[in-house]
Amino acid sequence: MSDITTVPKPRRNVELLLLILALAVGVGANFLVGLDQDQALDSDFFVQGSTLIFLVFAVHIVLRIRAKHADPIILPVVTAMNGLGLAMIHRIDIATGDQAANRQLLWTGMAIGVLIALIWLLRDHRVLRRFTYISLIVSAVLLMLPLLPGIGMELNGARIWINLGFATFQPGEIAKITLAIFFAGYLSTNRDLILLAGKKLGPLQLPRWKDMGPMVVAWLVSIGVLIFQRDLGSSILFFGLFMAMIYIATSRVSWILIGLAMIAFGGFVAFKLFPHVTARIDGWLNAFDPEVYNRIGGSHQIVQGLFGLASGGLTGTGLGQGRPDLVTFANSDMIIAAMGEELGLIGLSAIVMLYVLLVSRGIRAALGTRDSFGKLLATGLSFTLALQCFVVIGGVTRLIPLTGLTTPFMAAGGSSLLANWLIIALLLLISDAARRPAMTGPISSGRQPQRGLTSRIKALGSKPAKNQDPHRTVEVKKP
Amino acid sequence: MNQAIRNTWVVAIAMFALLFGSLTVVQFFEADDLNANDWNSRTLYKNFDKNRGAILVGGDPIVESVPSDDEFEYQRVYNEPELYAPITGFYSLVYSATQMEAAMNEELSGNSNDFFYDRILQLFSGSQVEGASVELTLDPELQQMAFDMIPDGMKGSIVVMEPDTGNILAMASKPSFDPNVLAGHNTDEVTSNMAELEEVAGLSPFTNPATQSLLAPGSVFKLVDTAAALESGEYDADSELDNPAELPLPGTNISLPNFVNGGCAARTTVDFSFALEQSCNTPFAQIAMDLGEDAIAEQAQKFGFGEAYKIPIPVTASQFPTGMSDDLLAQAAIGQYDVRVTPLQVAMMSAAIANDGVLMKPNLVRTVRAPDLRVLDSPEPEELQRSLSAENAELIQQWMVNAVDRGIANGAAIPGVEVAGKTGTAELMAGSEGNNSWFTGFAPADDPEAVVSIVIEDVNLATGSQLTSPNAQKLLEAVLNK
């Protein structure tokens, strides 16, 4: 199935080297921030720098022990982004007197802790396939939590938060992952059914109505999030995630067309019916209309963000030399504008290249891994990252309407950080499976066979093998 | 399945390509427009964090930026604020920048192209670009003298200029104000200070009266008529002009009288010299009606009317009306009706006559220096146009000398020096006591070192004449004694 020759070398030393480079970028940026704000080498810098170094080296060591074939590029890329994010949040803290960088550091620690635990305990991503339907239930619960009175809370117009007492949390961020697991599990099990049935309409093979079920569910979830939680960004994300995964499962363009039609319909109805969607579209199209600009919830934020980007220009003002604090939510929703202001088009392009690299490595893991569950999961998660970047940066640059999504790994926000590091844990595991030397025997990748868990994985891993190539199955059916 | 995954990757890359595109549009192609947007306080904030260059007069900073301990790094400070306010203008968070602060903003803020290499260096060194300093052509002592000559509570302007270079040596106006109250960083305070300033009678903090207020010139406009007459070739030094006590205006039942108190009544025909000495009205009204509106308008234009200048602060265009019937033209010829001039324009007229007919561009900037004292710019004298022939200029010079020696401008006389001058009185409203009282002139007549123009607005005749010619004499004397 995989036509890509796997690299048998673990490449952990490459990772170590890149990691040092990434830390130099992230910690170096934080140093410059302090320098330009005349508070060089304050205690925040040392705490943030040393904690980040300690955490990523811990991950590196865990990878050496438990997943030594994992992609060596992923961790350094994410480290650089998390480090740059911390530096920029620290920089905005200095301007606003906030303590967001230290909160972000705490969440980074927690997220990396969960990542280490996941890699250590899970070892093989295919175990997750057993949780297909549990994931669906968990997703449903997570999505409904913010709607519950008492625990759920509304912030800045969106009801996507729960109050844990000591901190607030966006369960929707985690639901992204559990939904991806559900879709991957469901689609990898049922893809034959979905694939084979259905009428042909010209070059398009239409799915059967009963196979449309999951698509409708995904659509309803997205619309539900849009209506009840007023979260346009997550709504787009969930639906995009599902569209990508069903397309990969079936290779049918017809699904994409149906999906786009559903988006167009849902989007149009939402635009007509829901004021918060109308306001977003209006603020996007007429951002420079004085009336829209001055309206509460109007285009003030996006226009200020554009001013920030513009004042950065090609080379940026330099870290600590701009005024990113003039933009509302500079350290979360608008961190891209802050980065663009101080690092310029050149710096921001480098950051976007990091995302391109990360998404590409995720897709590479999907191509390399041998099980369709892993392929679906890795592509789904990677595509989610790409889509999230597109929605956020596209919103900030006024390419598309602004939605309240976070920039992965950089924006201040614990839930987002935790969820994205979890995605990295899964991508690392899948890449480990992909890059492990191909063995004809049971999957043990040069490691000692494990008891219990691994034997079940073996069973799972071998199961989809008989239907591994959809094209071949279809061809057999042809007269 | 792998092909679908590759396709998905292509879609993801396409999305990133779109992002690169839109980032480039915002940060590169639209950046200048966005930075210039009125809502973009960022540019202003950025400038307030910068060590903006000083404005200097006679080597001393009259405006400078000093470190500030509030949310901005620097505070703009105006030394001797009222003396220079109309020229420096102010640099305010709320009201933006005016006058010199606005006109020389690129240089003062260090944003001009001269700073290209400094900005590249700054990229690597991380240091801030400091703005250039701007040295003005003003002479601090003359400026102070001129300022003190306008009594508090009165409205007036004085301009002293070098006729051969156009350099302005003094430019004072009252009432003035303290720009420091507008340069504060507390926007509420600044707003209420501005409201207070706008209550002050006769004061507009946004404009420089010497270059931007348009006033009726009265008799000083006769210099234009004289030049027009000589340039037309229909008149010369020997021309005999009719000088009736009253000139009936065609198409109306009113007539234009000569100045009652002057010596005009002594003769019924006069030459140019006498008409200018005594500032008789009727000969000039007659000349204008004979030459026609176009000839007068054209001569006015040659003296600089109808054009706005940047010196580099803005100068409003002076106006000579068009499409007048003869009776209105007769009134316009003596600087009434809708003729409107800036005090600087009157100085320019004198300067062109003093400079043998060549009108130089007025100028306020001597040098622009980078923080390392390297000279970035020092404007050369610039010829605007020839206003009249040298011979005719010389004739008018002599007649203006006569006006000081024997005529009604004799308050400007300096013993042992030939002073050329012309007074003017413009009635503001028929029957009211208030006049604009003018003097313009230069000395020494054969090789003029300075031109002086003085206007005191809305005064009675006696006070006005005490404030114009004698003060011009003091200013010219001060220049000659330097």
UniProtKB/TrEMBL annotation, chain A:
<feature type="transmembrane region" description="Helical">
    <location>
        <begin position="72"/>
        <end position="92"/>
    </location>
</feature>
<feature type="region of interest" description="Disordered">
    <location>
        <begin position="440"/>
        <end position="479"/>
    </location>
</feature>
<feature type="compositionally biased region" description="Polar residues">
    <location>
        <begin position="442"/>
        <end position="453"/>
    </location>
</feature>
<feature type="compositionally biased region" description="Basic and acidic residues">
    <location>
        <begin position="466"/>
        <end position="479"/>
    </location>
</feature>
<feature type="transmembrane region" description="Helical">
    <location>
        <begin position="16"/>
        <end position="33"/>
    </location>
</feature>
<keyword id="KW-0812">Transmembrane</keyword>
<feature type="transmembrane region" description="Helical">
    <location>
        <begin position="343"/>
        <end position="364"/>
    </location>
</feature>
<dbReference type="GO" id="GO:0032153">
    <property type="term" value="C:cell division site"/>
</dbReference>
<keyword id="KW-0131">Cell cycle</keyword>
<feature type="transmembrane region" description="Helical">
    <location>
        <begin position="255"/>
        <end position="274"/>
    </location>
</feature>
<dbReference type="GO" id="GO:0015648">
    <property type="term" value="F:lipid-linked peptidoglycan transporter activity"/>
</dbReference>
<protein>
    <submittedName>
        <fullName>Cell division protein FtsW, lipid II flippase</fullName>
    </submittedName>
</protein>
<dbReference type="GO" id="GO:0005886">
    <property type="term" value="C:plasma membrane"/>
</dbReference>
<keyword id="KW-0472">Membrane</keyword>
<dbReference type="GO" id="GO:0051301">
    <property type="term" value="P:cell division"/>
</dbReference>
<feature type="transmembrane region" description="Helical">
    <location>
        <begin position="376"/>
        <end position="397"/>
    </location>
</feature>
<feature type="transmembrane region" description="Helical">
    <location>
        <begin position="131"/>
        <end position="148"/>
    </location>
</feature>
<feature type="transmembrane region" description="Helical">
    <location>
        <begin position="45"/>
        <end position="65"/>
    </location>
</feature>
<dbReference type="Pfam" id="PF01098">
    <property type="entry name" value="FTSW_RODA_SPOVE"/>
</dbReference>
<keyword id="KW-0132">Cell division</keyword>
<keyword id="KW-1133">Transmembrane helix</keyword>
<feature type="transmembrane region" description="Helical">
    <location>
        <begin position="409"/>
        <end position="430"/>
    </location>
</feature>
TrEMBL record, chain B:
<dbReference type="Pfam" id="PF21922">
    <property type="entry name" value="PBP_dimer_2"/>
</dbReference>
<dbReference type="GO" id="GO:0005886">
    <property type="term" value="C:plasma membrane"/>
</dbReference>
<feature type="domain" description="Penicillin binding protein A dimerisation">
    <location>
        <begin position="52"/>
        <end position="134"/>
    </location>
</feature>
<dbReference type="GO" id="GO:0071555">
    <property type="term" value="P:cell wall organization"/>
</dbReference>
<dbReference type="GO" id="GO:0008658">
    <property type="term" value="F:penicillin binding"/>
</dbReference>
<dbReference type="InterPro" id="IPR012338">
    <property type="entry name" value="Beta-lactam/transpept-like"/>
</dbReference>
<dbReference type="InterPro" id="IPR050515">
    <property type="entry name" value="Beta-lactam/transpept"/>
</dbReference>
<feature type="domain" description="Penicillin-binding protein transpeptidase">
    <location>
        <begin position="156"/>
        <end position="476"/>
    </location>
</feature>
<dbReference type="Pfam" id="PF00905">
    <property type="entry name" value="Transpeptidase"/>
</dbReference>
<dbReference type="InterPro" id="IPR054120">
    <property type="entry name" value="PBPA_dimer"/>
</dbReference>
<dbReference type="GO" id="GO:0071972">
    <property type="term" value="F:peptidoglycan L,D-transpeptidase activity"/>
</dbReference>
<dbReference type="InterPro" id="IPR001460">
    <property type="entry name" value="PCN-bd_Tpept"/>
</dbReference>
<protein>
    <submittedName>
        <fullName>Cell elongation-specific peptidoglycan D,D-transpeptidase</fullName>
    </submittedName>
</protein>
